[in-house]
Fold this sequence. Notes:
This protein has helices at 8-14, 20-33, 52-57, 69-81, 119-132, 146-153, 209-218; strands at residues 40-44, 61-66, 87-90, 103-108, 133-144, 157-161, 165-174, 179-189, 195-205, 223-228, 241-247. The protein is an alpha/beta fold. β7 (165-174) and β8 form a beta hairpin.
Amino acid sequence: MNQYSDFAFVYDELMSEVDYDGWVKYIEEIIKKENCKVKNILELACGTGNMTIPLTKKGYDIAGIDISDQMLSVAREKAEKQGVELVLLQQDIRELDFEITDLDCVLCACDGFNYITYDDDLESVFSKTHELLKEDGIFIFDISSFYKLANILGNNMYGENREDIAYMWQNYFDDEENLVEMELAFFIKDEDGKFERFEEIHQQRAYTEEEIIEMLQEVGFSSIKVFGDFTFERPTDETQRIFFVCRK
Ligand SMILES: C[S@@+](CC[C@H](N)C(=O)[O-])C[C@H]1O[C@@H](n2cnc3c(N)ncnc32)[C@H](O)[C@@H]1O
């Protein structure tokens, strides 16, 4: 039961209320505020291309990497429909291997790094990112906060009953390992009106802001800024999405 296999084909529908245009705008504001010239971007854990496609349309040269073939195939299909050419690579970012260096920007949007559940692995992603960036290049990513995973998602159950999709999403938070295990069960209506069920188990690691900063410093990032929930303010105790903006 791999993560983001069957789920890939309903991901966009379930994310339909996420304001990706606003997200792209926020990333561009960060770049502008940092006074940074960005032409090329490497996007880690790009999924179905919800950031990759609009950023490509805006004229950036982007390559997207994701571990899930299915997420990438959805991205390819969407890009083709919109007449956008994407460079997509199937790869586990824990073993990130990208040929082009001197990158202007590395991006990881929508909590991709929470899927990296071991410190050593995440530190190695940060280290490789540092190597790939040009001098003064910018690294922008967000994570779901410890507060969100432990107190909002953790030990909670969600569900929705839409016309064509119903799902149950049961979470368990392990406060020794700081891991949230998410059991997802989906029921998808087929052409004959019958519902097919599939399941996936996802695991996300809750990291504190301090843990992340320590790892970023360890691999050599100097200027590290931390913002909460699409603002330019410091996160509060109840911030759900934390943005990190680092310069090499
Ligand atoms: C919540 S989705 C975010 C997708 C996309 N960035 C977006 O904004 O919609 C998390 C993504 O991380 C990817 N992912 C998880 N672990 C990964 C790994 N080790 N290497 C590469 N991608 C990974 C998943 O396949 C999934 O596409």
